Amino acid sequence: MSSKKELISFPPGYLGNRPEKFPLIANNEALFAINKPAGLACFQHEWTLGKPDFSMALRRELLNEKPQLQKLGIEGMFRVFNLDAELSGALVYAKNEENEVLLKNAAGSSQVQYHFHLLARSETEDREFVCDLPLSKHFQAKRMVVSHRTGKKCETHFKFLRSFGQYQLWEAVSTNLRAHQVRVHAAERGLSIVGEDLYADGDEIYLSRLKRDYMRGKGREKPLYDKLCVHLVEVSFAIPGRELDPVLAPLPSRFETLLKRLDEYRGGRG
């Protein structure tokens, strides 16, 4: 059984200057998962050089034979899928090689479904649509491009959830997880994600823009949420002959605060 007290911790120097703790949001005989914060990498790539890397920190502690990991039954660094460093949300690892094969094969066979929540401005009146544009890595820049010649197939289903004035909360669901997929597909279909500066001109939202009697303090005002407003809220499994509970990842607290402020000062409506 999973427990709120179960966590993975790292000493200073592994993921920065401070010690870090990651409560487990899922823990069973096959897998474990953390709620990854935005800005934390989970795989080595030229686009993530210099960023703290959870997978590398985990590998290092496995080599140290850390008792905490042994107690959890974690036998190796078996990441099931890659989650872009800029995104937050559910990050899933298999506990052993056997389950790594099972879960990676499931991911490659469209038996793993990824559910994102994103906050955006919309240029479309559609409340549900699909984008299936193939994506390829740009030959030079650190970005993805739509390419019908060299791109890999992928498909994202978008569904409107709630309106906050000029901003809307959307769900994006896919059984693929290409690099930057949700971001590119959102931009191509007229959704400007809050915090997006690569594929669209996304806003940063400040309390002074929402609250009429806002009193400015000293110094420069910070946005209510200073990360990209895309969060992987759920990973679900449809593996024949194997029943696994979905992995649920609550929104970051500051993302939640942003939605509450939008609801309070702009008036949320369905």
From TrEMBL:
It holds the Pfam family PseudoU_synth_2. One of its GO terms (biological process) is enzyme-directed rRNA pseudouridine synthesis. InterPro entries: PsdUridine_synth_cat_dom_sf (IPR020103), PsdUridine_synth_RsuA/RluA (IPR006145), RluA_PseudoU_synthase (IPR050188). It comes from the Bacteria. Residues 31-187 form the Pseudouridine synthase RsuA/RluA-like domain. GO terms for molecular function: catalytic activity, acting on RNA; pseudouridine synthase activity; RNA binding. Belongs to the pseudouridine synthase RluA family. This is Pseudouridine synthase RsuA/RluA-like domain-containing protein. The lineage of its organism: Bacteria, Pseudomonadati, Verrucomicrobiota, Opitutia, Puniceicoccales.
